[in-house]
Amino acid sequence: MDNGVIQKPGFDWYRIENETWSSLNENELKEVSIAGKQIGILKQKEKLHAFAANCPHAGVPLCSGWLDAQGRIVCPKHKFRFDPANGRNTSGEGYKLYTYASVVRGNELWVYMSGGTF
Ligand code: FES
To answer: Domain range for residue 45?
Structure first.
């Protein structure tokens, strides 16, 4: 167990502890800690999205932002928009939000953290 997260030895998939699929509200931005890193998670249209918690523009916490009508994350500082599925900067400023692969197994949330270095 590491900071509320269980790491399977030999794997890079981390289960998000204290969060379950059924406990997440649809379209609610939530920041969690995985292996000492802050990431944002979002349940949207029966998919789990995981992304860097801080905006790639100036580091503002994105989970204090909101979603636009198309379900894109809107940063609260300068209102840049990001697609939570792929990190694309849909408002066109040229930034890229880092996203993580994620899956739901039963009621458990898993996030892939590449090689333990991220
Ligand atoms: S800090 Fe997010 S858009 Fe500037």
So the answer is: 5-116
Q: pTM of the prediction?
A: 0.88
What is residue 18's predicted lDDT score, i.e. its pLDDT?
Answer: 87
Tell me how far the alpha carbon of residue 72 lies from the centroid of ligand 1, in angstroms: 14
The mean per-residue pLDDT over the stretch 28-42 comes to 92
Report the distance separating Cα 91 and Cα 110, nearest Å.
Answer: 29
Number of domains in the chain: 1
Q: How far apart are CA 87 and CA 65, in angstroms?
A: 15
The rounded Å distance from CA 76 to ligand 1 centre is 7
Q: What CATH number is attached to the domain comprising 41?
A: 2.102.10.10
Residue 5 has pLDDT above 90, yes or no: no
